[in-house]
Amino acid sequence: MSTGTMSEAAMSEPTEESVRAEVRAWLTANWNPELSLVEWRKKLAASGWGAPHWPKQWYGRDLPVKFNAIVDEEFHKIGAVGVAKAGIRTLAAATILAHGTDLHKEKFLLRILTGEDTWCQLFSEPGSGSDMAGAVTRADRQGNKWIVNGQKVWTTSAHKAHWGLLLARANWHVPKHKGLAYFVLDMKQPGVQVHPLRQMNGHASFNQVFFTDAIVEPEFLVSDVGDGWTVATTTLMHERRGADGLRSWATASQAKGRIYEEERAEIATTMEPYKWYPQRAGRVDLVLERAKATGKFGDPVLRQEIAKLLIMSKAAEWTARRARAAQEQGRPQGPEGSLGKLVSSHVARQAARVHTYITGSDALLSGEDSPLGGVIAEILVSVPATSIAGGTDEIQRNIISERVLKMPKEPSVDTDKPFKDVPRNITAS
Amino acid sequence: MRFSFTPEQEEFRAGLRRALEARSPTKEVRRLMATDAGWEREGWQKLNRELGLTAVHIPEAYGGSGFGYGELGIVLEEMGRGLLCAPFFSTAALATTAILNAGTEEQKRTLLPSIASGETTATLAFSEDDGRNDCAGIAMTAAPSGAVYRLDGTKSFVLDGHTADLIIVLARQPGSKGEDGLSFFTVTGDAPGLERRRLKTMDETRKLARLQFNGVEARLLGQAGGAAGPFAKTMQQALVCLANEMVGGAERLREDALSYVKMRMQFGRALASFQTMKHKAADMLVDVELAKSAAYYAAAALDEGDGDMPAIASLAKACASEAYLQTAIHAVQMHGGIGFTWDNDTHLWFKRAKSSEILFGDANQHRETMMQHWGEPS
Fold this sequence. Notes:
Helices cover about 45% and strands about 10% of the residues of chain A. By secondary structure, chain A is α+β, with helices and mostly antiparallel strands. Chain B folds into three domains: about 5-120, Orthogonal Bundle (Butyryl-Coa Dehydrogenase, subunit A, domain 1); about 125-225, Butyryl-CoA Dehydrogenase, subunit A, domain 2; about 230-375, Butyryl-CoA Dehydrogenase, subunit A, domain 3, CATH 1.20.140. Chain B has helices at about 5-25, 25-35, 40-50, 70-80, 90-100, 105-115, 230-265, 275-305, 310-335, 345-360, 365-375, and strands at about 120-125, 140-145, 150-160, 165-170, 180-190, 195-200, 210-220, 265, 270. The chains are: A alpha+beta, B alpha+beta.
């Protein structure tokens, strides 16, 4: 490379200021709240400002991820609506960008950004929760199509989804991680049936999905047969990384106008399954206020339990801040970065215990008969999800001990033999 | 609030760790803890001179280095890790802090330079035979006698009280009660009428003494009758210092236990490959990292003059108390039978965990202090 192109490259290197100026200029020229949500997002996708960290060729601008916050800020300043971000669709996009063919990218990416398509993730099964690679939903080649039979579970938004990210077994004669294939499955077909799965807290945020000779066109195979696990790992990595974003409350602008109304409706639909999630985390924010309001605050035993909770939740918060500070300084994260999920289970459990002490007999009640219109009751029966969903506490401890503490794996009995010979649960399939 | 250490601080820590690993191996800890003094003047003065340890948080105007609790916390964490046998906590975290909080400008100029240089060791005597850590527990009286005072009474659980060159004593005006009439005094270690007896301690690396004062001549430190405020502040600072010392010890125990189970073979495989050990080790990491976060946060909060300080100091101490002892219990368990022997080093830190748990008030007491500060009706 000549020095001339070197210095040109250096000059065109984006900076906070240059990105801010560019996006601001584009928004000033183009933002139009009179457009429909989809019309506006199509324009946005074409400009690359909807997903600036995506490749230029696929609706992005090849900008480093760190600039997304600046772009978001500029959108926020003038009240411009962004692309559809909530839900599983972002995981679908990340997976397709990493492993998909051009056909997949053409067919799916734009409609992900516009929000026209909704996605779901078909990984967990009744017979394989923590052991996700032990999936037994089968995909068999018949003629030039794939035929899918089996059952998935814990599928958020499956009843709304147009497309599913499917992990299924295509080869039973090789070890479990080697026989999986990764597909995009059309959810709107007769072979796919979706039933809500009612949880112990009464909500039904997830679904069970049954496949009876469901069909996948051959071009919708995302991985090679046998490489499905690798592709699933990409999806899971993005899920972990973006978990906070996925689960946090997307807030809609309250502004008037067609585009805002359409966005509010979209957010309400996407966030509906997550409405009990704050209660699942224990609602530490309510504890002091409730202890005082109920007159129990003088109880020395309760005071000890509240203090234990506050110590845990403050120390957890400060631990997360330490991890973030290290990241911001570009330093390798210490062990403090891997503990959040496990600690949040401890906090939630202790919070539920404290809410019970505070609430006394009223904790026997539910719904409108119980304190705060059912919020306390919902905490007590939602907290058990925290230590299971998104990787159980036990799996978290395995990850911490193996990746952070470098302790050896336990001897494995299923990874080296053909999957057909591995003992497994008897399930519907 | 600061949530990370600067490269300079990290470098300081690394140098200190290397020095302590070289100078204070457990063989040396065991030798010194078996002596009556519990430490050796020559070795400690040399180490202190080289690394400027007692000077760390003394302002430059008084011969110190002018750093804050962030740096002092690092020193204490590394000493807790290395279990250094030296009168550092008593001199730096207690006496120096009390002098800085209570002393007049002239007293600071007189007393602090020789502490900073390491010539003088010092301690703070506040608890009495009932072991309380609060103002109401102070019974010792100080009667004016010309330009000086005469102290009569007993102090106990005094850190390094049997060897300190300078003793800061908390005593009260005869007839006063509670937080009223309390003053700090300075007494020299060899003052006539002072009888010092070393107490036999469970944690032999932390020496305590009982001091009997019979008309001992003392000089007022700071304002007469005004010690309650500076004493409360000194205790908060000491709690934060102790919490930082504790997390250093806890991390060392955690690392040693982990190395042991990786090396130890049973049933044909490393103990570390059993899930029961892996989960315990993961839980220990959580406990220690959370306690570190609290201790670091509290040190930063002291440096920034955080208004929530009484609660934060107690939080850090309560958190470290539970984490250190739990880590010690797990560490003995992971070692199995060998972990219960005298020759194995685990018990040195187990006992330090136990003594630290109790010193300046246990976790129950500090959780209650937290609630008093954070839970008052608004």
